[in-house]
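Cont'd.
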Amino acid sequence: MKTLRDAAVGETVAVLRLCGAGAVKRRIMDMGITKGTSLYVRKTAPLGDPIELTVRGYELSVRKADAEQIEVE
Amino acid sequence: MEYKIALAGNPNCGKTTLFNDLTGSTQYVGNWPGVTVEKKDGKLRGHKNVIIQDLPGIYSLSPYSLEEVVSRNYLVKEKPDAVINIVDGTNIERNLYLTTQLLELNIPMVIAMNMTDLMTKKGDKVDMEKLSAVLGCNVIPISALKGQGSAEAAEKAVEYAKNHRIGERPHVFTGSVEHALAHIEESIQNAAEPENLRWYAVKLFERDSKVEDILKLPEEVKSHIDKHIKDCEEEMDDDSESIITNQRYAYIGRIVSNTVKKKSVHGSLSASDRIDRIVTDKFLALPVFAAAMWLMYYISVSTLGGVLTDWVNDTLFGGWITNAVTNALTAAGAAGWLQGLIVDGIVGGVGTVLGFVPQMLLIFFFLALLEDSGYMARVAFIMDRIFRRFGLSGKSFIPMLIGTGCGVPAVMAARTIEDERDRRMTIMLCTFMPCSAKMVIIAMTVSTFFPGNVWIAPSMYFLGIAIIVLSGVALKKTKYFGGEASPFVMELPAYHIPSFKGVLIHMWERARAFIIKAGTIIFTACVLIWFLSNFSWSMQPVDIESSMLAGIGGAAAWFFAPLGFGSWKGAVAVISAEMAKEQAIGTLAVLNGVAADAADAAVSAGIAGMFTAVSAFSFMVLNLFDPPCIVAMATIRREMGSRKWGWIAIGYQAAMGYVLALISYQLGSWMFFGASFGAGQAAAIALILMILTAVLRRPSKAAGEVQMAADRI
């Protein structure tokens, strides 16, 4: 099982499903990361965390710990 | 009849610019009842009877964040007469997500599609008419920054508000979800107002506990609804909240592909991308960040801000106004005590408040610049890794930095932090950084009692940082600050050049909040302390030695005895240092028979006899880490938004200062000055153990705090 955390910088991945629950999960979905959405991993922050993604045409940053909750292919 | 029009939209969609444009100078900024979320309203230009209500910038109407709960409560309960939904055309999919939720509220609505000029530049085309038809409400292209189309959108909203025009609701949900929603609507018909049926049905489907509480449905209806939801969840192999979100985005995907023609952008880098390449680059990010922070600090604290604040304090209030008022009062033959009250109490009090204003304006100017340009989000992106380890936000860095200059603007700067928990903790901790007034205490203590010592001064800064870090770690393990981490899922908006007017308005709003709200408390406290230090219990004007303050100091002296300076003089100095930190030294000088403005050497000689080296060190530590001056405390109280939180912060700081002073005096005199080990030392060691336990213990499990805060409203 591959998660968004494992995706390399420069890679484009598609969301398989979201794990977790509650506020964080809802926030991630509200921001447009839903099943089937394609995510482009733009870069890692200078200190190694969080990461920056392109989602639905805009830039979003998520922590690696939260990225781990997003299964991708 | 008065009409209310709400502005709703995502953060960074240009909502504030549009609001400023529509309301001009009539806006009023306050807080939403019960919470510290900003509430802004103003009259629509050219319409005396139309109020524009600016809602907080939100991405969704979920029940999880304070801003979202505030907005949905307003929309559902107060039902504005119309809504203007601002949609950022360059980020259309995510912006329309909120639109699909707003349309369920059955309020007349106009969509103002912003940044259409940027879209044209990029080569994107939107079929406005088709989009209007699909969504059942007018879509009007605007450019808030250039003021194009704003008036037209507002006029349309006023028209809709007057004739209460609600378009046909778009068909967002499909198949079994729509089926289940229809069933839910039917079964709650008796419990909810007809215009809110769809909204409640969707929320019940999402198992939104807040709506469940409001509707108070009978058990059999609840289980009936639950069965529908479960059937749906089973069929679609997902939880109900995800099903709704997925369907919304799927719907948006369909309409966007039918109405928006995006020019493919592959291979070309936008200006924003190019800036980001440097600003968040692996190697350049930190140097760029340091340079930006240094520049802000240098101009607003060290140079220009410092000069202006000194000028207001020393020349304007200390010289001109004081002299003018004194002369006028003498000429009028006013009594001595009345002159004292007016000149030292009132003019001094007002001066204390206004003295902070120039520095404050400059800091707010830079903060507005950082926020409006989009760099603030990058600050959080760069610093998040460090700060979240001790329960703070990446944006906490700025208040801490400003805190080394002055705690008052530092507390105000915490406004840039959205999460209430992070913001409260930042406010509580940022004044532990020694400010410039505390430098006076450090300098005098070192030069008098530890001449030639070079490590005490810098080590006070490290101690400040250590206290912040350890407090963060310990507080994060408490019930309130612990619980579920606030989601750090943050948009990095495209950079843009902020509008000068917007920055100025932003700056002025914050400065005004300080002057009016904190100013009244500060003014009262200044007059009170002036009164206590100039009058005896029999209401005779006296010198400070025989004043009420000296009496209070004498009564409180026992309290400071464990810290090594149990004399009334020490106690009075600590109390008067709460007026302004540098007065800790000035008051000591006066009490020891030296003029407060005497040369440093004379002050040194005057206070040298009062302390031993170790008790002087403890006096310094207490004054550095106990609650900051009255101005900062008033600001903390105001920015916390509740009396309870104001007292928690100040109580925490008082305990911290006292405990640290006690530990340094008791252990210092035992380890370095040959005192024997006794009860004091044992207490100091016990306190250290307590601190270690608080830092190292296992975190207490608590329910999500946002939930708790949101439940209050």
